[in-house]
């Protein structure tokens, strides 16, 4: 046991002392020297969640593997280690790299034997977890890992929107969250934000008016105004009112932000909601998908000094809440039929067995089939919240 503790402590020290851009080199050295690894590769999930891209040496082009259909993708999707037989007795151990439910990528380690891999698999999984935490810290000081996530260049608006996000997924014993934006490399107005304390989860689903950089600027102003009010300890009604004032003061009513604000009591499942615009909410309960309608209130910034009122809604353990922007439910098929609640309910039901982090991608793939093209004409946002309750 002491040998295991010493090895893990040495690995953690090596990662914490490594330069931010050299985490892969540091973990590779530890695994090769202390665990007899033959090769080590870090694969990052791209913004579209379609491929896993190798974090390369500067002179090497990154390799890509599909998220769906590859051994590394299997570990990423299941969030469990997966062992791949390589021939000559060697195996590849694919380990998810995640931080509090936020899925970053996969650490792939080639080893001499399956027995050796099984013997130290728990240690390897812990090292992969430490690597994930160190990557989050390192991204403050280097672009190496952000660049590895890109299969294409982001538009400036998309760059702003992705930097605004808290993450793409997170999990606690009471709940699990996942969200995705499309088109991933050219998103401009849709966004989401969340923040949790010991007793509350606050969630915003936003849809900024306009296109391109103007929509991104509007959403950035709105999200940061809401965060500023939230961090002052204000209720969601007061958060909405202050953000409304900030947006109106800047745009004078010529632009507004549609937003769904939610405040979930983690002890009781009691949800307070302000519906200020176009994002919608659907509930999956016991295989039945139903839209949940709230009293419509004015989008933020439309008029000066608007008052907002929160409504209450009870969430039961086992409920799944799915939030979508108008770029999802308003999309028309080539024949003219909009996606709407019927198709959306079918997509949510079809993804019923998937974890929350994978639901947005599954719904967006169904949406792509409906509109008959891979690229979206409008922003599309899906966020999934699974509520387990507090025991």
TrEMBL record:
MF terms in GO: protein serine/threonine phosphatase activity
EC number: 3.1.3.16
UniProt enzyme class: hydrolase
Domain PPM-type phosphatase: start-end pairs: 174-387
A matching Pfam family: SpoIIE
Record keywords: Hydrolase
Protein name: PP2C family protein-serine/threonine phosphatase
Organism: Streptomyces bluensis
Classification of source organism: Bacteria, Bacillati, Actinomycetota, Actinomycetes, Kitasatosporales
């Amino acid at each position: 046991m002491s040998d295991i503790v010493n090895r893990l402590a040495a690995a953690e020290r090596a990662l914490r002392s490594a330069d931010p851009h050299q985490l892969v080199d540091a973990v590779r050295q530890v695994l090769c020297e202390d665990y007899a690894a033959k090769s080590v590769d870090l694969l990052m999930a791209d913004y579209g969640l379609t491929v896993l891209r190798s974090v390369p040496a500067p002179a090497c082009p990154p390799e890509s593997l599909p998220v769906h259909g590859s051994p590394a993708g299997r570990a990423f999707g299941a969030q469990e280690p997966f062992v791949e037989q390589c021939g000559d007795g060697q195996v590849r151990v694919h380990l998810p790299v995640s931080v509090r439910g936020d899925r970053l990528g996969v650490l792939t380690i080639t080893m001499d034997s399956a027995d050796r891999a099984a013997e130290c698999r728990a240690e390897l999984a812990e090292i992969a977890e430490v690597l994930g935490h160190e990557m989050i810290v390192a991204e403050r000081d280097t672009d190496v890992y952000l660049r590895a996530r890109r299969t294409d260049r982001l538009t400036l608006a998309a760059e702003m929107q992705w930097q605004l996000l808290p993450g793409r997924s997170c999990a606690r014993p009471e709940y699990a969250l996942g969200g995705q934006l499309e088109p991933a490399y050219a998103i401009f107005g849709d966004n989401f934000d969340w923040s949790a304390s010991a007793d509350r989860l606050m969630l915003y689903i936003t849809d900024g008016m306009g296109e391109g950089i103007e929509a991104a600027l509007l959403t950035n102003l709105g999200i940061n105004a809401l965060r500023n009010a939230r961090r002052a300890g204000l209720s969601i009604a007061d958060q909405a009112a202050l953000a409304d004032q900030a947006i109106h003061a800047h745009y004078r009513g010529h632009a507004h932000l549609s937003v769904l604000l939610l405040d979930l009591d983690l002890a009781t499942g009691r949800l307070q909601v302000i519906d200020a615009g176009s994002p919608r909410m659907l509930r999956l309960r016991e295989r039945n998908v139903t839209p949940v309608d709230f009293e419509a209130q004015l989008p933020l910034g439309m008029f000066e000094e608007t008052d907002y009122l929160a409504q209450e809604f009870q969430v039961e353990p086992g409920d799944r809440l799915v939030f979508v922007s108008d770029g999802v439910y308003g999309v028309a098929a080539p024949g003219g039929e909009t996606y709407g609640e019927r198709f959306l309910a079918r997509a949510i039901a079809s993804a019923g067995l998937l974890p929350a982090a994978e639901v947005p991608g599954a719904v967006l793939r169904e949406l792509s089939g409906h509109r008959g093209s891979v690229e979206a004409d409008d922003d599309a946002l899906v966020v999934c919240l699974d509520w387990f309750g507090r025991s």
